[in-house]
Design brief:
Layout lengths: L8 E5 L3 H12 L3 E5 L15 E2 L11 H17 L4 E10 L5 H17 L9 E2 L15 E10 L1 H14 L3 E3 L12 E2 L2 E2 L2 E4 L5 H7 L8 E11 L6 E5 L6 E7 L2 E5 L3 E2 L10 H12 L11 E12 L12 E6 L2 E6 L5 H13 L2
Helix pairs in contact: 1-4, 1-7
Bound molecules: flavin-adenine dinucleotide.
Flavin-adenine dinucleotide (FAD) binds next to α1 and β16.
Length: 356
């Protein structure tokens, strides 16, 4: 019967943000949940993000309206439920000239972004013209800005909170426990569950193929890398990279700057690392707008992750961040998504399980 907690025994393969939030939502519904994680909870892709909770303003360019709206709703969910580990952040977009098509295109985009947030708006963006307010920016080149608001998170502290919730909800956690075998009858390794969930992020396809489960969805392995720069900034910025086809974020990161990301198609999700051309690209892009230029000795650290994107476009900059949930008898497999949209994925999974 729909909507009644059924106290099912549920096994989840993968302890990234998708698996963790599904576990929390399902345990709150009264189910007994077990997570199997090959390494540490939240240790893979979910620890390699830009730390933004967002609808994805740049996806408006590809008219991915419902995907953006979904993300904006989830963004609000995170800020409302975890106020100690999340905050709103104003992000400035620099422009050389405000009399340009690009400026008006972005102004329009920001208005749509705010409109789609509706009552869950985090703040109203600004238009800043001929200003030398942002001292870190090269004023001889840039003095005009648009701004918009998004969410930012401290993923380490937020992750600890989520692990605490898993413990409070009596979710059984098996870390360093790789799942080799599973099927659509609820089997995971040598255990049998009423329902199993495959939430292995970029590894989803590989695990399905190894276990002879078909899907018409495929994961596109798109690596993204970040640099942590030994420079403090007080504002968030989103600016065009030197390739001119994508945007880069420079965000406050305690007393440093988080700079990223790149987009590079790779062959495997295993052990991603930043390559020299990615480092060069990020450094040159930063130096194209900031006044105190950086070099490789200013890099404090770097990290890379492979996005679990559903293969949707040849041009990787246009790939959708949307998610897809596939059901095969007692197995639910999750493709795609973002950290931000994990609650939407979990709601969908709960609905499927409650309606079984
Ligand atoms: C560069 C970059 C920047 C990003 N920035 C943002 C951002 O700012 N905001 C945002 O919302 N999203 C962002 N994302 C997207 C976000 O990181 C991912 O969508 C999200 O973390 C995916 O979570 P997941 O749980 O699906 O995958 P993962 O975090 O990868 O979790 C899957 C887990 O499955 C485990 N696993 C794999 N195989 C097995 C097995 N055989 N047995 C057991 N366990 C297994 C893995 O060890 C892993 O821990 C970014 C992604 C990247 C790469």
């Amino acid at each position: 019967m729909a909507g009644i907690p059924l106290n099912k025994n549920i096994g989840i393969i993968g302890g990234g943000i998708t698996g963790v939030i599904c576990a929390i939502f399902l345990a709150k519904e009264g189910n007994k949940v077990t997570i199997f994680e090959r390494k540490e909870l939240l240790g893979e892709t979910s620890s390699r993000t830009t730390k933004l909770l967002h609808g994805g303003i740049r996806y408006l360019e590809n008219l991915q309206l419902s995907e953006v709206k979904n993300g904006l709703n989830d963004r609000y969910w995170w800020l409302e439920n975890f106020p100690d580990n999340t905050k709103k952040i104003e992000i400035m977009i620099p422009f050389r000239s405000f009399i340009s098509l690009k400026f008006f295109k972005y102004l329009f985009g920001i208005k749509i972004y705010e409109f789609l947030s509706f009552t869950k708006k985090l703040g109203k963006g600004r238009i800043v013209i001929n200003s030398n307010k942002f001292q870190s920016i090269n004023q001889t080149k840039i003095s005009n800005y648009l701004s918009f608001f998004d969410g930012a998170m401290d993923d380490k502290l937020l992750g600890s909170k989520l692990k605490e919730q898993l413990r409070d909800l009596n979710v059984t956690i098996h870390e360093y426990c790789e799942v080799k075998n599973f099927n659509n009858r609820g089997q995971i390794n040598d255990l049998t569950f009423d329902q199993s969930i495959l939430a292995a992020g970029p590894w989803t396809n590989i695990l399905m193929k190894n276990n002879s489960i078909d899907s018409d969805k495929e994961i596109d392995f798109i690596k993204g890398s970040h640099l942590v720069i030994n420079k403090k900034i007080t504002n968030g910025f989103m600016f065009e990279g030197i390739c001119k086809t994508r945007y880069i974020f420079a965000l406050p990161y305690s007393d440093k700057t988080l700079l990223g990301t790149t987009e590079k198609r790779v062959n495997t999700p295993e052990d991603p690392y930043i390559e020299n051309d990615e480092k060069d690209y990020l450094i040159k892009s930063y130096n194209s707008i900031f006044i105190n230029s950086i070099k490789s000795t200013d890099i404090d650290s770097s990290f890379s992750g492979v996005r679990p994107l559903i293969k949707s476009a040849k041009n990787i900059h246009k790939s959708s961040r949307d998610f897809y949930v596939q059901q095969d008898d007692k197995l639910i497999s999750i493709f795609g998504g973002k950290w931000t949209t994990a609650p939407s994925i979990a709601r969908k999974v709960v609905t499927i399980i409650n309606n079984e």
